[in-house]
Amino acid sequence: MAAAEGARLHHIARESPDVKRLAAFYQEVLGFERIETPKFGEFEVIWLRLPPSFSLHLIEKDPRSKLPEGPSAVADPSALPRGHHISFAVSNYETFVQTLKEKGIKTFEKTQPDGKTKQVFFFDPDGEFVCNYVLFFFFCFF
Which residues lie closer than 8 Å to 87 by C-beta, 6 or more apart? Predict the structure, then answer.
């Protein structure tokens, strides 16, 4: 038995040098809504929610950090390793992909061998790998 009972995903946090730009992307592309955000002092934080309960917390990158920033070293979504991504399911796959293309976002599409699971892979403005699925009675686990 697990030590934590009733555990569930609460939120994902992303660090960004420009949280306003990143928030606008997730609001415009995936329909996140901005929610009340506590003040954390010297750095900017924006909290977003994808109804009904998933949250994305965007945190201003610490300028003293030694970690690399900017787009991923792999610029082509078709060449990315399969393990690193954020994934969302959408019910309007074709329209969603068309919107990404209209916004000038480079995409890579794939249909799984079952013929039911379609995927589109793309980057957010900070170079984070995002993938979206349309699922028909099928759940993906990575």
Answer: 130, 131, 132, 133, 140, 142
Task: Give residue-wise pLDDT tens across range 94-116.
Answer: 888 899 899 898 888 888 777 77
Q: Which domains does the chain have, with CATH numbers?
A: 11-60 (3.10.180.10), 81-134 (3.10.180.10)
Mind listing the pLDDT tens digit for each residue in 7-52? 667 788 888 889 999 999 999 999 999 998 878 778 899 999 988 8
Using CA atoms, how far residue 88 sits from 14, 42, 91, 141, in Å, is 15, 31, 10, 12
Pull the structure tokens for residue 140. Answer: 């993906």
Tell me the DSSP string of 61-120. Answer: PPTT--S--SS-S---GGGS-SSS-EEEE-S-HHHHHHHHHHTT---EEEE-TTSS-EEE
